[in-house]
Each structure stands twice: as structure tokens, then as C-alpha cells.
Amino acid sequence: MFRMKSVSAVAVLIAGAAIVPPAALLAAHHGAGHATADIIDGQGQTKGRAMLMQHKDGIHVDIVASGLPAGVHAVHVHTTGTCTGPDFTSAGGHWNPGKKQHGHDNPAGAHVGDMPNMTVGADGTGTLKTVVKGAMLNGGADALFDADGAAVVIHAVADDYKTDPTGNAGARLACGVIKAK
Q: pLDDT tens-digit profile of 38-86?
């Protein structure tokens, strides 16, 4: 009878492991989880999705967007998890816990939230895959998930990678509140 209970317990453990979603297994493997942001335009129409995954080297970001104007667009992580259209100023400034200046080409930069530009094709679609080096979703004083959250913002024009504080990136076209998953 004891053996029966042991076998049943093993079967329950195996069955339980089989129903754990793959994303949860990845989050457990990497230790700090993952997040998503549904990106909307100023009229509330869905324009894409950002997926953020914690890895040892930083936050890996994958963005897929559609319905945007063709061209090169700045993409940044902003400090506040609010996306009120049409201008999305509610998202605050760039995520900058180190109090640096803006831009990868600025000797006094860059903000943690400064990411590479995203090219959108004539069909209105664009993708961006990047790593926000050294950044953390959770844990520590400078983690992305703080009391007021954070957002991903896609801007009207390209970031010049040097002008402080915005990179001359223009208006905010689309925004997505980053939510832990």
C-alpha cells in the first residue's frame, strides 16, 4: 500500500509538470520572469506587442508592430506604466535609473530605456529584437517593475542616439503598458 501511494505521488508530480506553460518554465529557468506590452495608437487601436524576458545579461525585448507609418522609428522604455492617448505623455520620460544623458552615441549616456531604432516597411510592419544590457525586470532598487510601472513607446521618427533627453525622436505614435506575466 505504501508503494501505491508513492507511485501515485510521482504520477501527480509528473502530470503537474506536464501542464506548466512553457513560458512559466522559461521564467523559472531565468529566475525573474517575463512581461508583455500590448501596443496601441492614440485612438486605442492595437499596433503590436512587446515581449520582455529576463536573462542573465539583461532584458531581452522582442517587438512586433503593424499599421505604423513606413520609416525609421525610435523605441524607448518609459518610466510610467500609463498609456493615455492621443499623445502618451502619461508614460513619462525614458527609463533612466542611472541618471545618465540620452543616447548610445552620447559620451554621458545612455538611458537604460534607450533602445535601437525600428524600421517599419512600406507594408506598415516592423520588428525589433534587442537586449537592454544589465537591466532587471524585478528585484533591486533599479528594477523595471517599480511602484508606477513602465511602458514601451514607439516614436514618430528615428532616434539620433545623442540628443538629450529625447534623441529628437518626435511625437509618441504608440504605447504599451508593460505587464508581468
A: 999 999 999 999 999 999 999 999 999 999 999 999 999 999 999 999 9
Nearest to 117 by CA among 132, 107, 109, 127: 127
Q: Where are the beta strands (DSSP E) in the chain?
A: 34-41, 46-55, 58-65, 71-73, 75-78, 118-120, 126-133, 151-155, 172-180
pLDDT tens-digit profile of 79-109? 999 999 999 999 999 988 888 888 888 888 7
In whole angstroms, what separates CA 179 from the centre of its chain? 9
- Strands (E) in 30-112, as ranges, are 34-41, 46-55, 58-65, 71-73, 75-78
Gyration radius from the chain CA atoms: 19
User: Which residues belong to the active site?
Assistant: 76, 78, 94, 102, 111, 114, 155, 172
Answer whether 59's CB lies under 8 Å from 136's CB.
yes
* Amino acid in the structure at residue 132: V
Q: What are phi and psi of 28, to 5 degrees?
A: -65, -40
